[in-house]
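Troubleshooting entry. The earlier prediction with 8-OXO-2'-deoxyguanosine-5'-triphosphate gave an output that would not parse, so I re-checked the input for stray whitespace and re-submitted. Clean input:
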Amino acid sequence: MPQLRFTTLVEAPLTVAFDVARSLGRPWGAPLEELVSLRPVRDVYSVRAGRGWRWLTHSRRFSATGAGTLVDEQVDWATSVPGPLGRLLDLLLRRRVLRAMQAHLDAYAAAAARRALDVVQVVGAALVDGDRVLVARRSGGPYDRCWEFPGGKVEPGEDDLSALVREIGEELGARIAPQAFLGEVVLDGVVAGGAPGTSTLRVWWARVVDGGQLTAHEHAELRWVTADELESLDWIPADRPLLPAVRDLLARL
Ligand SMILES: Nc1nc2c([nH]c(=O)n2[C@H]2C[C@H](O)[C@@H](COP(=O)(O)OP(=O)(O)OP(=O)(O)O)O2)c(=O)[nH]1
């Protein structure tokens, strides 16, 4: 069965990458049927009886990376003509799909990066020391007394890692070295006046580099916990999907 794959790295959080992809539509002239829509990680569309094809499906997977959202797309189709004529038709369709997707993806990546500028992002650190990770308890606001990853909002023009280093300096009085990207979750609450479900929290594994004492300048409490203690804490609910990645990290180190 003919098939083409495409990979695009979009400078936008998962939610923006997904929402912009959907608002732009698909580069096919025929009506689309939505088969799957799992915001913000996956969707699948199909087109029936288009020009020259019997059917065509277009699936996308959106995954978080430290550099933005990776969008993996796959287009599968079947032609209605058998034999050599069918093979020729397939070649023509392949060229058409390639051209349509390339134009679509260039416009898409640019539109998502532009939209990302309007969405305030949150970054957090999973600070590890030995077999423990630092968790911080919020003080005040809608998540009063809930546990979270220390961090905060990325300021306009700032990149994620600079924001992370700055926030941890302000909140804990410590200098950190980010090590690796751990994961991204959708925040269902309002962040900086934005629509609920638009901002995401992106968390990096990090180490404290200056070896000094950590001080809770903005939190009610700081605690170093083991992997086994993680689940039982009263976390901000949106953070929970990140806990398996933190457990894995602690098991690996
Ligand atoms: N830092 C952090 N924020 C989280 C987590 N989970 C979660 O939903 N949030 C939400 C709570 C807030 O709505 C938002 C972060 O805002 P913040 O108040 O910590 O940011 P900030 O330090 O930049 O604060 P400010 O400018 O408002 O003073 O993200 C988490 O694990 N860590």
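This one parsed fine. The two ends are 44 Å apart (CA to CA).
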